[in-house]
Write a structure and sequence with these properties.
It comes from Streptomyces caeruleatus. The chain has one domain (2-7, 14-249): Rossmann fold. It is built from 7 helices and 8 strands. An 8-stranded parallel β-sheet has the order 1-8-7-6-5-2-3-4, with helices on both faces. Strand 5, helix 4 (116-138) and strand 6 (146-150) form a beta-alpha-beta unit. With 255 residues, it is of the alpha/beta class. The longest helix is centred in the middle third of the chain and has 23 residues, at 116-138.
């Protein structure tokens, strides 16, 4: 059962003394999440592939909030780099309490136009990379650890053709999350997944050529913001009795 949660504030949440790793944290939802967790008191590591300057801007913004931060180059398509991000976070910031699996790629197009290289790339980043990063993070987490994965509204509802590969990769994360919840629950570690709908980012701007159609598919008739997604992530980072759950932050896309 999917739960829709509109977490506007998280005054009950405190992450003081915690360390968070946000993959793909140089822009969009990842950057907003890194800043929100820092406002809640966490020190933050962000990974990037090509956006070094953007990642360093996030680091400076986190430091301006009085928290420690580090930018780590790590390509989740590379098995060693995906797994190594957790270890590097511990080395840089002294621990790891919260993992946000945000890094992902989207390849959309007709089924008969997708090449094997497309399939391998999407599954390597969106599934294998998330699995390996979660595995490495869990090995370094104590009780109270949190694994939060960014899924997609398309894991719940594919509104048209062209999304088969992307939806496949994001749907796999639901099973991963539920499996992690069962396996790590006895250790006091939770795992949850957040499904954003259309969100206004530089990759999918609310004034882009396909935006009107995407907005029309939501019950609210608009794009969401990265901050709205980050608010739910922050809630889950501080929630003790929530695990194995799906949270739709999609404006009613799946309604």
């Amino acid at each position: 059962m999917t739960t829709t949660h509109a977490a506007r504030t998280s005054t009950h949440t405190t992450l003081h003394g915690k360390v968070a790793l946000v993959t793909g944290g140089s822009r969009g939802i990842g950057a907003a999440t890194a800043l929100r967790l820092a406002r809640e008191g966490a020190d933050v590591a962000v990974t990037y592939v090509n956006g070094k300057e953007a990642a360093e801007e996030v680091v400076r913004a986190v430091e301006a909030l009085g928290r420690r931060a580090v930018a780590l180059r790590a390509d989740c398509a590379d098995a060693d780099e995906a797994a190594g991000a957790a270890e590097r976070t511990v080395a840089a910031l002294g621990g790891l309490d919260v993992l946000v699996n945000n890094a992902g790629v989207g390849v959309l197009g007709p089924l008969d136009g997708l090449a094997l290289t497309d399939v391998d790339r999407v599954l390597a980043v969106n599934v294998r990379g998330v699995f390996l990063t979660s595995q490495a993070a869990a090995a370094r987490m104590a009780a109270g650890g949190r694994i939060i994965t960014i899924g997609s509204c398309m894991a719940q509802r594919v509104p048209g053709p062209g999304g088969t590969l992307y939806a496949t990769s994001k749907a796999a994360l639901i099973g991963l999350t539920k499996g992690l919840a069962r396996e790590l629950g006895p250790r006091g570690i939770t795992a949850n997944i957040v499904h954003p709908g259309p969100v206004d980012t530089d990759m999918n701007p609310a004034d882009g050529p396909y935006a009107a159609g995407q907005a029309a598919m939501t019950a609210l008739g608009r794009f969401g913001t990265a901050d709205e997604v980050a608010a739910t992530v922050a809630y889950l980072a501080g929630a003790d009795y929530v695990t194995g759950a799906e949270f739709a932050v999609d404006g009613g896309h799946a309604a």
